[in-house]
Amino acid sequence: MDNAIFSVEALCKKFSAHAIPWLTRLLPRNGIGKNGDYLLDVPTLHIPAGVVVLLGPSGAGKSTLLSILAGLDTDYKGTIWHRSGVDKKKLSRDVAGADSIRRKHFSFVFQTSNLLSNLLVRDNVMLSSLISGRSDSDCIGLLTKVFKDTSVAKELLLRYPSQLSGGQRQRVALCRALNKATNGHNVNVLFADEPTANLDRAAAKHCFDLLTDWAREKADQRLLLLATHDLSLVDHADRVIVIDKKGKDVCGITFDGVKEKCPQYRERIKEAEFVLRSCKESKKKNQNHQGFCTVFS
Question: What is this structure's pTM?
Answer without folding.
Answer: 0.77
